[in-house]
């Protein structure tokens, strides 16, 4: 299987997450010295009131914002297991003429092209028990874990809507080539500790691990091979054209 990853985007976002972490740490250290300015002889007695009324709230605000952004970027671009690795391991054994693209066609984070069609894949990093019921998503947690999740910015959002938007974007990209090629929206949860309790999903919600049920590989194999991709030459030509016009 051909694997193409937007390494520039991955590297850049990892660097931003790292830089923001150290920037946030520096802001916290600066805030500590600023708060104790009189003790360390940095701030005079007359300036101390202004520091507390203006300086400290500003430092706290900047530190809070940079920390939240750093945590979110870390979850998306640094946290292990990486979704691209989980997908690669989970798809071992599918057609070697297939191709998958990571982070080139956002909001479709992962786009798989194989004999069964095109799959727009949305990934989630959350662990624990994930529940989908009556169109609502939630993660089953205790009160303390829920409180910490707010600071970790690991809310689950709406993967169903994101997957449908991702599939719509890919359909738009290929409609001039062949509007009859199906694009399937898919949601995967890559953390090996996650447990899925899903009722009546409108979009398949899967594990990338082929040893768990339901999983991505079996879902793909459950689809019939397309007439448009019934030979390796046709599939290879579509992949070549898709790369040329979308990357």
Brief summary:
The chain is an alpha/beta fold and 247 residues long. It has helices spanning 7-35, 37-40, 45-77, 83-90, 143-152, 159-174, 216-221, 232-246, and strands spanning 2-5, 99-105, 108-114, 117-124, 129-133, 136-140, 183-189, 195-198, 205-206.
Task: Show the helix and strand layout.
Layout: E1 2-5, H1 7-35, H2 37-40, H3 45-77, H4 83-90, E2 99-105, E3 108-114, E4 117-124, E5 129-133, E6 136-140, H5 143-152, H6 159-174, E7 183-189, E8 195-198, E9 205-206, H7 216-221, H8 232-246
Parallel strand pairs: 1-2, 4-7, 5-8, 7-9
Antiparallel strand pairs: 2-3, 3-4, 5-6
Distance between the termini: 18 Å
Global shape = elongated
Count, helices: 8
Secondary structure category: alpha/beta
Q: How many structural domains in the coordinates? A: 2
Number of DSSP-assigned strands: 9
Major pleated sheet: 6 strands, mixed
What does this structure look like?
The protein is an alpha/beta fold. The chain has two domains: 2-77; 83-246, no CATH class. It has helices at residues 7-35, 37-40, 45-77, 83-90, 143-152, 159-174, 216-221, 232-246; strands at 2-5, 99-105, 108-114, 117-124, 129-133, 136-140, 183-189, 195-198, 205-206. The chain is elongated. The mean pLDDT is 89.
Task: Give descriptors for this structure.
elongated, single chain, 2 domains, three-stranded mixed beta sheet, six-stranded mixed beta sheet, 9 strands, 20% strand, 247 residues, alpha/beta
């Amino acid at each position: 299987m051909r694997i193409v990853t937007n390494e520039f985007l991955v590297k850049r976002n990892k660097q931003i997450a790292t830089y923001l972490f150290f920037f946030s740490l520096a802001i916290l250290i600066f805030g500590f010295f600023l708060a104790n300015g009189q003790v360390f002889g940095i701030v005079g007695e007359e300036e101390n009131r202004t520091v507390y009324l203006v300086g400290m709230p500003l430092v706290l605000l900047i530190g809070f914002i940079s920390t939240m952004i750093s945590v979110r970027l870390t979850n998306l671009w640094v946290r292990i297991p990486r979704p691209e690795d989980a997908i690669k391991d989970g798809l071992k054994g599918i057609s070697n003429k297939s191709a998958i693209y990571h982070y080139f066609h956002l909001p479709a984070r992962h786009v798989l092209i194989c004999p069964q069609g095109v799959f727009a894949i949305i990934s989630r990093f959350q662990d624990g028990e994930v529940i989908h019921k009556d169109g609502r998503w939630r993660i089953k947690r205790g009160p303390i874990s829920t409180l910490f999740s707010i600071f970790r910015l690991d809310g689950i959002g709406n993967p169903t809507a994101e997957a449908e938007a991702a599939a719509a974007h890919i359909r738009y990209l290929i409609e001039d080539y062949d509007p009859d090629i199906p694009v399937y929206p898919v949601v995967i949860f890559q953390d090996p500790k996650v447990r899925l309790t899903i009722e009546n999903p409108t979009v398949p919600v899967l594990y990338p691990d082929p040893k768990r049920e339901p999983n991505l590989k079996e879902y793909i194999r459950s689809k019939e091979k397309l007439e448009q991709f019934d030979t390796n030459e046709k599939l290879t030509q579509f992949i070549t054209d898709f790369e040329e016009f979308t990357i």
